[in-house]
Structure prediction request, 227 residues.
Amino acid sequence: DAKTTQPNSMESNEEEPVHLPCNHSTISGTDYIHWYRQLPSQGPEYVIHGLTSNVNNRMASLAIAEDRKSSTLILHRATLRDAAVYYCILRDPSRRNYGQNFVFGPGTRLSVLP
Amino acid sequence: DGGITQSPKYLFRKEGQNVTLSCEQNLNHDAMYWYRQDPGQGLRLIYYSQIVNDFQKGDIAEGYSVSREKKESFPLTVTSAQKNPTAFYLCASSMGQSRYEQYFGPGTRLTVT
Prediction:
């Protein structure tokens, strides 16, 4: 199964952009790239997902490398409320046993400094 | 408001007792999931259910049991066979096909002494 690699932690200053990287060198052609985040003592929440093209929504942007072996979650202006653990996950909708799709590694702990 | 509820938020039990964690969703989702999270770690899948009256083991099902008698409910029982039950337990649901995002509940923190 394709896995993802993320830095353990990152720091950002408030009001500045944040680029959270994710490496997935063994990604297959049918894997979607999903990002979730988890605030302290809460359940994870969905942030964004994409397949090949860059994606934008109200929370963030997702930049996907042309070879799809890496991606970057972009928070355009970090706020204190963005301090969380960010998870990069690969999901393959063509897989019948899709319980195997949900592998949340340790993620990246983002600290936002005022 | 639609969402997933888990109760209680904190649960304390003595070793050797079975305990059942509640998970309810009113999102009309077909699929539901249970995860376990230990401090500083990611999430590990315990059980999942794609449809009523059907469920499958995840990566760490030993010592746990589930039922899915209703679409909106997916309770998890932590049995006395689970060697290290103290953890944060998260329930989630999704539309049923894996291209859709998962929605998570607020979690139940179980402490067994």
